[in-house]
Amino acid sequence: QNDAFAQAKCYVLLGEINENIQEWKLALENYHRAYALMSDSFSSSSEFQKTLEGLGNSNLKLGKFEESLKYFQEALLLRLSGSEKAERQLDISEVYYQMGDYDYALKAVGEITYTSKIANTSFDTRLQNQKAKIYARMNELDKTQNLYQNSLNQARANKSPDEQQKQSIQETKEEIADVLRSQKKYDEEINLRNQAIEYNIESKNFA
């Protein structure tokens, strides 16, 4: 059993390396191998939790939405901390968003029990951005604008935003801009991009 667990940990590590260099098919293969070794005897381990997250992410990147949902939902059945549960619920919302099922995407973020015990600026920014882009696709642009502005303000308040936070802001900007452009709302798109430029200058985020 110890040998199987050690082998599984190696596959998890390989999966994480594959993810970092965006080799999603290889990541999926390695996480599947880890899952096969751990699902029966080691399902309470943190490595199994990483495996389910990796399977969810890799399937999502490959456009395998049902598989992605399956693994993220399986992860919710584990004994998770409040912040870990919130992260998986946000992941589930993103799967529905990429499927184009915006009602379920919004429902998923609405089910996040968000308390001060699990609050952190990075997660809160990503949560606001998730709602902003969902509302944009649902054509509720006033809500989108308010949420995106809130996320920028929260990011400004964080003197050292992490990579997830920065990436969320940039990706959400492009998602909202895509909606505005499709509706030929060019002035609103320019205002949105100016907001983002202001934030990048203030935070010295020129990536």
Name the average pLDDT.
91
The profile of the biggest β sheet is: none
Q: What count of helical segments does DSSP give?
A: 10
Radius of gyration: 18 Å
* Class by SSE composition: mainly alpha
- Helix and strand pattern: HHHHHHHHHH
Ends apart, CA distance between termini: 46 Å
Could you describe the 3D structure shown?
The chain has 207 residues and is mostly helical. The protein contains 10 helices and no strands. The protein has helices at residues 2-20, 24-38, 46-61, 65-76, 82-99, 102-110, 121-137, 141-157, 163-182, 186-203. Helix 8 (141-157) packs antiparallel against helix 9 (163-182). The radius of gyration is 18 Å and the shape is elongated.
Could you provide a short overview of the structure?
By secondary structure, the chain is mostly helical.
Question: What order do the helices and strands come in, and which of them pair?
Answer:
Layout: H1 2-20, H2 24-38, H3 46-61, H4 65-76, H5 82-99, H6 102-110, H7 121-137, H8 141-157, H9 163-182, H10 186-203
What labels describe this entry?
207 residues; mainly alpha; 10 helices; elongated
